[in-house]
Amino acid sequence: MKELKGRDLFLIGCTLFTMFFGAGNLIFPPAIAAQAGAMTWWAVIGLTVSAVGLPVLGVVAVARSGGMDALCGRVHPLFAKVFTVTAYLAIGPCLAIPRTASTSFEMAVPPFAGADAPMALFQFLYSAAFFALALLVALRPEKLTDRLGKIMCPLLILLVVVTFAACLADPLQGYGPAGAGYESPGKAVITGFLRGYQTMDVIAALAFGIVISLNIQARGIAPERAVVRGTIRAGAIAGVLLFLIYAMLAHIGALSGGAFPDPDNGAAALTNIVHALFGRRGDLLLAAIFVIACFNVCVGLICSCGEYFAELCPKIPYRGWAILFAIASMALANAGLDQILALSVPALNIIYPVAITLSLLSLFQSRLVGRDQVWPIVILFTGAASILLELLGLLAPALLDRIPLASLGLGWVLPALLGLIAGLLASRKAGR
């Protein structure tokens, strides 16, 4: 049986890395490090668990289960359809795809345009070109390895490495003091974990499996078991690349925080240091990094969403779905994105704990054989808690302080554990 290995395996891993690594992944590590200062590497440990470990776990979960639908189907067939459609829409045309254009535009155009420049027109032209190119690449999803893995991934990594090397050559004033939330190694690990948790890459991990499988099959790997193993190994390679790039970005951010204290966000931390190191050319370097990263994610999301909906509604072929998502995303990137964000972010806050819980349960699926009640009850408890927490956050935020771990964004953890206990008890009774 032919296995995915060597150069092909590495390229698939690079492809998956580029699909993960967007604007948020660029911004979080330097933002964390700028605040962590001398405690940066402790914070990186926490960041690695939540922003590398959990997404890789999501890839493994989908691969072992035979797809996102099959994974969710362990809960209930209706849940599988509703959750999967909601997840794809939330990380696709309703949020993440439009945001790739709007975020990269902010880094690529305004810094070089005059104060009186017609920004609305520039944004329309930029988004039209951005989505046209992304669609052109996305129309051949089985070729992503040749386009993203071979070309865009090395280019993106090269630009980050250039910035990192410049920081090694000129460390400015060094790391600054640890800020609030990073005063001790333990606090730094926890805060790094919680900040990395906000990348919400586990949802993307569940969605990307379908495209990665296509690219593995395009390499001549046909048996399902070989595709699953190849996907898991590619996920591990993507995780290693994510860790290495996060570590570089963290070092860059820590130096930026030492030289320019209290940046507004990760983008400001990056902007400050590239200006100090490269002058005006730093704007071009940073713009290129953001545009490439956002472009890669945009292509990956269009492919993933298009493939899923083409399977769900085969009357419209993949090409039709891809074009539809590209056009809709361009429209949202230019008008109404703030309103979409207002609706989509709460939806993601509800979906994300469920996605993590599904991934964790998949690790123990062999031990849950014959305990079928565990899956639906755990997900019921987790989903209900996530919805309740989101409603309280909108209607009565003061009440959140009374719920364990809610202030950390982890208020769903105890309900999930209670659901696990209830599921095990229910399964035992059903077995009798």
The best one-word shape is: globular
Q: Regions with pLDDT < 50 over 5+ consecutive residues?
A: none
Compute the number of helices.
17
What characterizes the major β-sheet? none
The computed structural class is mainly alpha
What percent strand? under 5%
Terminal-residue CA separation: 42 Å
Number of β-strand runs: 0
Average predicted local confidence, pLDDT:
90
Rg, alpha carbons: 22 Å
Q: How would you spell out the order of helices and strands?
A: HHHHHHHHHHHHHHHHH
Helix content: over 70%
Give the topology, please.
Elements: H1 6-20, H2 23-36, H3 40-65, H4 68-73, H5 77-91, H6 96-108, H7 119-138, H8 144-169, H9 185-197, H10 201-217, H11 224-259, H12 266-278, H13 281-312, H14 318-334, H15 337-363, H16 374-395, H17 413-431
Helix pairs in contact: 1-8, 1-10, 1-11, 2-3, 2-9, 2-11, 2-12, 3-9, 3-10, 3-11, 3-15, 5-13, 5-15, 6-13, 6-14, 7-13, 7-14, 8-11, 8-13, 10-11, 10-13, 11-12, 12-13, 13-14, 15-16, 16-17
